[in-house]
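Morning, I've got a small favour to ask if you have a moment. The fold is given in discrete form, as structure tokens running alongside the sequence. I'd be grateful if you could look everything over and explain what you see. No rush at all, and the record is pasted right below.
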Amino acid sequence: MVTRDALLQVLTADPAGLLPAREQMAMTLGWHIILACFGVAFPAMILVMHSRGIRRDDQVALGLAQRWSKVAAVLFAIGAVSGTVLSFEMGLLWPGLMGRFGDVLGLPFAVEGLAFFVEAIFLGIYLYGWGRMPPNRHVLMLIPMAISGVVGTFSVIAVNAWMNNPTGFRMVNGEVTDVQPWRAFFNDGVWGQFAHMWVGAFMVVGFLVSGVYAVGMLRGRVDAHHRLGFSVPFVFASAAALVQPFIGHLLGLRLGGTQPSKLAAFELATTTESPSPLRLGGVLVDGQVRGAIDIPLLGSIISRNSFTTPVQGLDTIPVADQPPVNIAHLAFQSMVGIGTLLALAVVLFWWTRWRDRDLLENRWFLRFSAAAGPLAIIALEAGWIATEVGRQPWTVFGVLRTTEAPGSNSGLWWLFGVTFLVYAAMTVGAYVVLRSMARRWRSGELDLPSPYGPQARLSDTQRTDR
């Protein structure tokens, strides 16, 4: 005989598909987001390097642009696979979301698909164009690549921003009506989230690419190739690292009005204090904050732009509507801490440069530069964890709970296992290919000859004829 308590437990239990859906989405999105950063930032860096090569007749710059385009092609290829997997996952793992809100979210996904194809087309033209197009026309192929990468990323961010700021529809008797796709696309939160992600992409790619050349200099390869390969992406990363704290601050100011539960988790605010302190570190154990360092007043200043306005405490939010506090808090502070560290390192580098000191001759700075790329990835992933976990227990904030979004198919664990193996194989394959390319380049092996490239040169008359 089934008891009342047993029946209630069955009815209120999480769907069988919830945990595998969460695990697979976290794994695939966390993996793909790194490749997405290259799609956003790398074309712009290649454009600057290629333009420098043409304008100054700089063969080192042209060689770097050509090599970077090969790397971009490899990353784009595996990114296409992972992005395709993600597109299928949305409907397969989260039928409660897409089945109900598919009409609302269809537009940004369609725009993202078009942007992907445009980027693929012009990447192919650019790769094929070495040695086959006039230099000033060839370099222009990077512009639509860069634009389409930004548009595609904006479209994906628009979906996530909508999940945090749902708009563009009405709910009538549990049904979605009066859909306004453009209003949903350009929701109230999209510009801040996009700016944060866009700048973060330049931090990740800039520090990763410059770190590769920092490792080369640590191994004694201190030449024009490595110095220029370090400098251009590091300039991009420097600008991004200095701007990012201001964007993050503006983005965080909205949380007090739109998602007070997320802000309370970020700040580890168990009660409403006026003014609120800034809580560094610490965890919540049995409703009590343990191990935190409180800095009086600073929480209100940073989170609310006020000396007195408090951060709304968790005690004012129903327990059922509170996110996993410790995960959100630690992820948020990891992002902020690493971002601050990278910004300080950038300030130090350019200050010493202004003082006529070259930190590229300092091995400790080169070691830090090599670590800066992985640190930027950790900050990026921590930021996404804070965003997604902080929104819980909602998939669409205030409208659709996460437990209502997945299906009830427990067989999704098999899909997760297969997907994990595919992604692991792609990771190993990308590493092997990129390492092989690097070894060939170091041994002096050349890629496609070009009339204006690093080796083969044609006369001005021959260029004009082309």
About this structure: The first strand starts at residue 170 and ends at 172. The radius of gyration is 25 Å. Strands lie at 170-172, 175-177, 278-280, 283-285, 288-290, 293-295, 394-396, 400-401. The longest helix spans residues 18-56.
